[in-house]
Amino acid sequence: MSKRLAEDEERFNLEDWKVERLESWHVAKRTRANEQRFAKPETNNRTRVIAIAKSQIGVREATGNNDGLDVEKYLHYTGNKKGDPWCASFVSWIFGKAGYHQPKSAWSPALFPKARQLQNPATAMVFGIYFPKLKRIAHCGIISKVNDKWIYTIEGNTNIVGSREGDGVYQRIRHERGIAFYANWLNEKGAQP
What we know:
Layout: H1 3-14, H2 45-54, H3 69-77, H4 87-97, E1 117-118, E2 126-131, E3 136-147, E4 150-158, E5 168-175, E6 181-183
Antiparallel strand pairs: 1-6, 2-3, 2-6, 3-4, 4-5
Helix pairs in contact: 3-4
C-alpha cells in the first residue's frame, strides 16, 4: 500500500468516517474487480451522503478527458456520455447511492432550484460556484464540514487548485465568499430513512 493511501486511510479513521479499505487511488491500475468503492451503510442521512462522497476521493480521470471507469459511472447515472463535464453528475450519483431520487442532473445550475436554496451552509448540502464569464453556476460539490467561514468540500471534476475542469475527486477547503449558493437535497420525499 502506498504511503499516501495509508495516510489518507488513517485520516479517515481519525475523522470517524466509515470507509471500506481502498485498493488504489490510480485509475489506470484499477480493474473491474476492484473499481467499485462502497461506504458502509449509515443510518444518518448526512453521514451516509458524506461517507459515500469520501469513499470516492482519489478517483482520477483516465486520460484527462472526462473519462475513466468511475467518471463514466457518474456520467452514466445522469444520462451523459464520456467526455462531458461531470461535477454535477458526481453530486447526483452520491445522492443516488444514498437512496435519493434527486438531484439527477449533469447541469450544475439545475442543482439549485429556489425551493432547495438556503443561506447557511451545512454538512451534506450542495454548494455552487458562480462564474461571471458564463453567467451561471458552473461548478458544484458536496459540503463535508463547515468551520466558521471555511467550507470543507468533496468535489468531482476539479483538481488541486480548484478548477472546474479538473481531473478527479478531491477534498478542498473554500472560503464562503467564493460560494454563491447552497442547496439542501436531504429532505426529498421517498428517500431512504
